[in-house]
Amino acid sequence: MNDNEQNPRVASDADFDLQMSSQQMLSLASKAAELIVDRVTGLSKEKAWDGEFRQSLAQQLMSDPPEEGTSAADVLERAAHEILPFALRLDHPRSFGFIPSSPTWPGIVADFMAAGFHINQCTWLVASGPSQLELLVIDWFRKWLGYPESAGGLLTSGASAASVDALVAARESAGYPDSATVYMSDQSHSALPRAAKIIGIRPHCIRLIPSDAHFRMDMTALAQAVAGDRKKGFNPIAVVANAGTSSTGAIDPLRKLAVFCEKEGIWLHVDAAYGGFAIVTDVGKQLLAGIERADSVGLDAHKWFFQPYEAGSLLVKDATSLEHAFAFRHDILQDTVWGANHPNLADRGLQLSRSVRALKIWASVQTFGMAAFRRAVSKGMELATRAGEYIRDSSMLELLTPVSLGIVCFRVNPQDISLDDESLEGVNKDVLARVFWDGQAFYSSTLVGEIFALRLCIVNHTTTWEDVRATLESTERFGQMAVDRVQLTPER
């Protein structure tokens, strides 16, 4: 009796349980494309956000995996209608919360192709074509930033990973000193202190430097902090600057920071995850002047360069600084040493197994051209400026910070009614909740100093002035309703 007779489910050469015929594959791919195109083309008719409580979703989804399969088309239908819609529609033209984006269709299809070709872009031997393509895309970014030819880098999952890689390189460059300190603005994204903690910087050695009246890092406070730490025996290894804070869009004084860090021998990393791609426009070049002097820069193409997640990146002025920090010999990878000048991109960051991220960026730029991307980025800044003008002219709304890049911070604060700070905060929280649940748009909040602020981030290439205007009008309407409720509430 052979093995198959003893156990009829032992795999044999004839068993292909996990395969489909070519016709089945084409049919399923066509179904997926149909569902996605229907979603994308129908976005403006939907709400910008839809959510569901966990108990309801758990009742719907929490079950044991089936022992036998079912129709793949039905599975996709279920995903498209019962799971994926319960999310923020980041690519909706009236999605202004957090940092939204709208990916290009060539980028979406390129991700599908990359998954289908099933490439692990870890080393040159394993993925020479995709590796060269990533070098090309990184070189585009290098030129846009104004970096020298010695610069290089890699694509990452996002700015969080890029920040970790950058601070590892900074620590390597400083020689792994004891009592290392890292400095960043009190406006910095939470990913940055987290990155410092990940590389071993103790929490009490992560210095949050106060910002000035325009929410930029205070240079005097930074200089005092560094000097004071040196006297106490600490070793400053990195300063992290913002090129477009997530809250207000503020840009730190990049030129002054570069001069300071060069003088002090401290690594300067610029977090340009959101604002960095403004550099492809003339206005952006002026706003980000000095970024080319940083030791490293993080950029997210899945934000203002209109790519699907994940498409972050890290560039360093000296490409070898990453390889000094991350390249390790391993016997199982000894075959990947393939001639001179054939870089293994896994030697530049924390990932060994890596997806092909460059294809979507390359495909999008090849399809539409850089002129279209420049217009799309410029459009976001122009709409934000126009939104700021609308708010200044409104008797119901108050602009809280100067418009910067694509971000507008404001609040409901009627000119003809005097409300105390607590009441104003309550009104604006009420408005935000109404926008979430009842409005056709979505935006988020932040703190401007101690003030609760409503916040628009306008970076979607499909957004029109009509989308922005309608959102501000609904805010005025919800604001009036909230103010009326406050006035009708009897004093305690």
Describe the structure in your own words:
There is one protein chain. It is globular and about 75 Å long. Helix 2 packs parallel to helix 4, helix 6 (128-145) crosses helix 14 (358-368) and helix 7 (159-174) crosses helix 8. The mean pLDDT is 94. The strands form two sheets. A seven-stranded mixed beta sheet has the order 1-7-6-5-4-2-3, sandwiched between helices. The chain folds into two domains: 109-368, 3-Layer(aba) Sandwich (Aspartate Aminotransferase, domain 2), CATH 3.40.640.10; 371-488, Aspartate Aminotransferase, domain 1. The chain is α/β, with parallel strands linked by helices. The protein is 44% helix and 12% strand. The chain has helices spanning 3-6, 22-41, 54-61, 72-83, 105-117, 128-145, 159-174, 191-198, 219-231, 254-264, 282-287, 301-304, 320-326, 358-368, 370-393, 421-438, 465-488; strands at residues 152-156, 180-185, 206-209, 235-242, 267-271, 296-300, 312-316, 397-399, 407-412, 444-448, 451-457.
